[in-house]
Specification:
Layout (H helix, E strand, L loop, with lengths): L11 H18 L13 E6 L5 H12 L3 E5 L1 H4 L6 H10 L4 E6 L4 H8 L5 E7 L5 H15 L6 E5 L6 H12 L4 E5 L15 E3 L2 H5 L4 E4 L15 H8 L3 H4 L7 E3 L12 H4 L6 H19 L12
Parallel strand pairs: 1-2, 1-3, 3-4, 5-6, 5-8, 6-7, 8-9
The protein binds phosphoric acid mono(formamide)ester.
Length: 312
């Protein structure tokens, strides 16, 4: 595994290896040990061309926990002199970068960077346009496995703006490969991509029907920055029909967990009482992002060795 650009087409074994590796890192960093020396002397460069709180900071924390040197390039102030992306990359590579973590508003940007870096450099996709957000999907799968164990008996419902969501696409690919019993998407027709049926999911437009017997409810943000003329109800109307409230959540299993990749829009796709409620694992997802990103970084740079497990 040299780059990590998408979950599409990845074999189940590899996804399980990422989850297991993340589990062993979580076991170490949850306790007194805060750092391991696996990436000592390596340089990780965060190239975020689009805003991020959770992904950028947990990538930085993950690299630091692995003892790498981390640089956060402020793209807004770095590329002001008309330099092309490619020239900028060549210069950063000349500074002996080992890894680029790339977020960009254009689908395919991380693949483009991966095609143009030298053989010793790994590229991780931290979210590109509507295309993919593979580490988000893996931290979501990690969180689900911690709460529910096996994927096979699960009904997982993904709710909201699937059309513009790179998270949903990566989740569907990863959860399918991991053998999830049933993946549902719940959304208005205007927020579903044309190829949705081909992704092997069950489509619902009625939220209460779609949530029935669900084990996991994954909410999505309305991605307004990627909408161009989409036919949308007003926010209060959207919340009334597709916002997750305690009342609608009652249709899911009593032990269903509630997830959201963040940032959450309270009162638009989720009610505060649900976001803060006992079934919400939203902040756990953020914490789990550190171990999962440690796993992906160490596996792509080929330095992963099984962490010594502490005696029970
Ligand atoms: N989930 C996610 O990608 O959040 P950020 O945009 O804050 O990184």
């Amino acid at each position: 595994l040299r780059h990590f650009l998408t979950t599409e087409g990845l074999p189940r074994q590899l996804l399980l290896q990422i989850l297991d590796t993340a589990e062993s890192f979580a076991g170490v960093i949850d306790k007194s040990v805060k750092k391991v020396p696996l990436l000592r002397g390596r340089t990780v460069i965060n190239l975020f061309f689009e805003a991020s709180t959770r992904t950028r900071i947990t990538f930085e924390l993950a690299a630091k926990r692995l003892s790498a040197d981390v640089l956060n390039v402020n793209v807004a102030t770095t590329s002001v002199k008309g330099e092309s992306l490619l020239d900028m990359l060549r210069n950063l590579e000349a500074m002996q970068a080992d890894m680029f973590v790339v977020r960009h508003a254009e689908s395919g940007a991380a693949d483009y960077v991966a095609r143009h870096v030298g053989p010793g450099v790994s590229v991780l996709n931290a979210g590109d346009g509507r295309h993919a957000h593979p580490t988000q999907a893996m931290l979501d799968a990690f969180t689900i496995r911690r709460h529910k164990g096996d994927f096979e008996p699960l009904i997982i419902a993904i709710v909201g703006d699937v059309m513009h969501s790179r998270v949903a696409r990566s989740q569907i690919h990863a959860l399918s490969a991991l053998g999830t019993g049933e993946i549902r998407v719940i959304a208005p027709r205007t927020l579903l991509p044309r190829d949705i049926e081909s992704l092997g999911v069950r489509v619902f437009h009625d939220m209460r029907l779609g949530l029935q017997e669900a084990d996991v409810v994954m909410m999505l943000r309305l991605q307004r920055e990627r909408m161009q003329g989409a036919l949308l109800p007003s926010e209060p109307e959207y919340f009334r029909i597709y916002g997750l409230t305690e009342d609608k959540l009652a249709a899911a299993k009593p032990d269903a967990i509630v997830m959201h990749p963040g940032p959450i829009n309270r009162g638009v796709e989720i009610d505060s009482r649900v976001a803060e409620g006992p079934r919400s694992v939203i902040l756990e997802q953020v914490t789990n992002g550190i171990a999962v990103r440690m796993a992906v970084m160490s596996m792509t740079l080929g330095v992963y060795q099984e962490m010594p497990r502490e005696p029970a």
